[in-house]
């Protein structure tokens, strides 16, 4: 391995935005001088419907370009000279209605890994762990298009977890889910947190997610307020974090 690669891998990966302005049709959605999202961060992104949560995540994932400002990535392994070194794919964005591949649950879980050069034993370990974590064991041979909303979300997070991204953005990961599905998804998110994955988690209202977060980004009045204080959940859904540890034994 080259020394420069080693240095890159030791650096914390991060995406930062400077003087960001986003407008649609002359209407300002938000305007923010500085934002930094890095490995180890667990950030709760709050904002009313239509305030721009999904748009911000897509900007940080390199899927859309802001009207003004720079979005810069640091600490990621350098791309070969023939590939453009853009933001795309550095932070994984999981859509609020996740797209699944046509085919079985197993195919969805294994496809991305088949593209990576990793030993078969490690590949199998990751698949087994993802299946257990998402409790998808009974559904492996089911067609992904037949899954319920909660099962789809679990599969989408497990599929993202399998490729072990350094930064992961989950858009409304527990909205429209019953308590049991919420608990499972929160356990998966907690596992990602334990793994040191940087997480940006959106929801229009405080919820079970907030108990896991260490920072708060709030989109309101066309700007983004950042704070190290995370508001408590408004609802009775106060998550007991000891329930959230996946696969740990006392
Ligand atoms: N490509 C686009 N062209 C024009 N307007 C857009 C486009 N994408 C988003 N918008 C508008 O920008 C605003 C913010 O949308 P966004 O999806 O980011 O909000 P959100 O905070 O994620 O909302 P929700 O809580 O409903 O998911 C909305 O008013 C939306 O209609
Ligand atoms: Mg949205």
UniProtKB/TrEMBL annotation:
Q: Which organism is it from?
A: Shewanella saliphila
Q: Which PROSITE patterns match?
A: ABC_TRANSPORTER_1 (PS00211), ABC_TRANSPORTER_2 (PS50893)
SMART domains in UniProt? AAA
Q: What is this protein called?
A: ABC transporter
Q: For this UniProt record, give its keywords in alphabetical order, as a comma-separated list.
A: ATP-binding, Nucleotide-binding, Transport
Name the domain of life this protein comes from: Bacteria
Residue ranges of the ABC transporter domain?
A: 15-246
User: What start-end ranges are recorded for coiled-coil regions in this protein?
Assistant: none
The family this protein is said to belong to: Belongs to the ABC transporter superfamily.
Q: Which Pfam families match?
A: ABC_tran
Is the Transport keyword given for this protein? Answer: yes
Nucleotide-binding: is it a keyword of this entry?
Answer: yes
Record Gene3D superfamilies: P-loop containing nucleotide triphosphate hydrolases
PANTHER family in alphabetical order:
METAL TRANSPORT SYSTEM ATP-BINDING PROTEIN TM_0124-RELATED (PTHR42734:SF17)
């Amino acid at each position: 391995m080259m020394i420069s690669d080693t240095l890159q891998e030791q650096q914390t990966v991060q995406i930062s935005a400077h003087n960001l302005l986003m407008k649609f049709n002359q209407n300002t959605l938000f305007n923010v001088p500085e934002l930094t999202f890095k490995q180890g961060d667990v950030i709760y992104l709050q904002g009313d419907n239509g305030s721009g949560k999904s748009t911000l995540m897509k900007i940080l994932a390199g899927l859309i370009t802001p009207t003004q400002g720079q979005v810069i990535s640091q600490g990621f392994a350098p791309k070969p000279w023939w590939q453009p070194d853009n933001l795309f794919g550095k932070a994984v964005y999981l859509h609020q209605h996740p797209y699944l591949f046509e085919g079985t649950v197993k195919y969805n879980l294994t496809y991305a890994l088949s593209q990576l050069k990793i030993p078969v034993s490690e590949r199998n370990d990751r698949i087994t762990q993802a299946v257990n974590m998402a409790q998808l064991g009974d559904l492996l041979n089911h067609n992904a298009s037949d899954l319920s909303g909660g099962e789809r979300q679990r599969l989408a997070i497990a599929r993202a977890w399998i490729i072990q991204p350094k930064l992961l953005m989950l858009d409304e990961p527990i909205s429209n889910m019953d308590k049991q599905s919420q608990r499972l998804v929160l356990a998966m998110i907690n596992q990602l947190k334990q793994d040191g994955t940087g997480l940006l988690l959106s929801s229009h209202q405080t919820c079970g997610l907030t108990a896991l977060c260490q920072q708060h980004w709030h989109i309101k009045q066309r700007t983004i307020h950042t704070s190290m204080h995370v508001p408590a959940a408004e609802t009775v859904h106060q998550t007991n974090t000891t329930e959230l540890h996946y696969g740990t034994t006392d």
